[in-house]
Sequence to fold (206 residues):
Amino acid sequence: MGQVIMVFDWDGETVHKETKGFTGKKCVTKTKFLEDALGTASDPKFNSDAFREEPKEEYKNLN
Amino acid sequence: MSHYLNIKTKITNGQGLLRALCRMQLRTGQCTMQKIETHEEAKNLIGYQNDVRNDKANVIIRRRHVGNASNDIGFVKVKNGTFESIISEYDSTYYNTEWQAKLNTFYGIETAKMAFEAKKIPYKEFIDPNDKEKRVRLLAEIN
Fold:
């Protein structure tokens, strides 16, 4: 299960869409209906670590 | 994997526009669905002297709801599929660019909610108390 959060600027035209927790490109395919409903989207920027809260296991082991 | 992107909204969905209008404050009070006329074929707007104007619109708020000595406000669907507002110069003191930007923002919110509802995806609407701009957010979990 993945999460999507949308933030609506008060300028009346900009919506920020952010996803997390999806596997692979599902973050795009499972949430594209939102862009289709709202208007024109910018190119997506991917970040596999953007929402990681815990350090990676290999870094933990260094301590 | 995660990603983020920005979306530029355009008012193209009539139902989204109606829902957005119902979140707006008119000079006479809260807008409701009962105060909005919708027409498949655009109808003439009426002026403050009860005069029939050349401007036609598909979505109309009649002047009695707009304000004292006001003209009708309309939204007409143009060839590219977007709705354009028709607001007289007199009424644009209240229904100004800030009011219209707010309407557009509510359009985005309501249209996104409609998209979730169409797919039966539960969502939560909230404002982050730490956000100084008090922007509306929608959060949903998707299988």
In short: Residues 20 and 49 of chain A are 9 Å apart (CA to CA). Residues 32-38 of chain A form the longest helix (7 residues). Confidence is low (pLDDT under 50) at residues 49-61 of chain A.
